Amino acid sequence: MGVYRAGDVIRRNRQALHMTQEELCEGICNAQTLSRIENGKQNPGKEVYKRLMERMGKEKNRAFAMVSGDDVRVLEYAREYENALHKSEYEKADEILCQLEKMIDDSDTSKQYVIKGRAILDWKLKRITHQEERRKLMEGLKITIDFPEKHDFSKYPLMENEISILCNIANTYFYDNQIEEAIIFLEKIYEGINSGYRIAEKGKVTELLILDNLANMYGELGEHWKAIQLVKQGLVLCKEEKTSGNLPQLLGEMEWNMEQLLEKNEEVDFTKKDCEKILRQAYYIATALKQNHNAYLLKNHYEEYFGKKL
């Protein structure tokens, strides 16, 4: 898989907007130069890159920024917010987001980040419905992307926050029991990040999140072997990246789908004892990572399914 390059960003934005090279570069550089930039044979200068992106209606920092502000505390608050959200500490995340709203600048990426955060938290805190959350997420997405909901965004040069919003939109469909629609969303995103065009810093984290969500959704549809295959892809990625944050969730998905296959008396090469071992492993990792909500859910499921204390 590739890393975002300036030429990739320019080329795929231009293609998504159906602009020719000549239309984009007129008055900025010649078409031959733009061709070399897009093919990775030449790096654009800062001013050329800025002008090309602005002509396409993109912020100059959009390819790299997620949330920004003049105060260095903004990034610290953003990290604290993401951490609280990951730990399901929604009241705490809500307080931090309120502070962020007062501190960030008025750039599109910052506004989009806050809209996404507010939509997710308002649903988590039961202030709005899934449908309202989806509508707000779409409003946030349209700040930087001008396409209808059914657009084939698998070929669009999505940035980190845009991918995150699309993943959350997929979840709203899932919770509304529109599982096929949710899967379509996630598979399009996954196709995009596997096309050789992806975020350098958090691309693997995003891929793990998508694999985990897809495994969950396919499991709900009863396609348990497909779900297990997706989990295995995620576990390989965790090993390659030497990351453990997604392991409890992935192992939990693996174990649950194995349970379903055992209960359906399908021909398998594992036993209930193997399920118990995996679930215990998932619980201990979640506990070590202080993922209290995950640990609580895994513990409850273990004690209910295996009939003994963990």
Give the CA-CA distance, first to last residue.
Answer: 40 Å
Q: Tell me the number of helical segments per DSSP (H or I, 4 or more residues long).
A: 15
Spatial shape: globular
**Biggest sheet overview:** none
**Rg over C-alpha atoms, rounded to the nearest angstrom:** 21 Å
Task: Write a structural description.
It is a single chain. The relative contact order is 0.07. With 310 residues, this protein is an all-alpha fold. Mean pLDDT is 85; it is low at 60-66 and 197-201. It has 15 helices and no strands. It has helices at residues 6-16, 21-25, 31-38, 46-55, 73-86, 90-103, 108-124, 130-141, 160-175, 179-193, 203-220, 224-241, 247-263, 272-288, 292-306. Helix 1 packs across helix 3 (31-38), helix 9 packs antiparallel against helix 10 (179-193) and helix 9 (160-175) runs parallel beside helix 11. The radius of gyration is 21 Å and the shape is globular.
List the helices and strands and how they pair.
Blueprint lengths: L5 H11 L4 H5 L5 H8 L7 H10 L17 H14 L3 H14 L4 H17 L5 H12 L18 H16 L3 H15 L9 H18 L3 H18 L5 H17 L8 H17 L3 H15 L4
Helix pairs in contact: 1-3, 5-6, 6-7, 7-8, 8-9, 9-10, 9-11, 10-11, 11-12, 11-13, 12-13, 13-14, 14-15
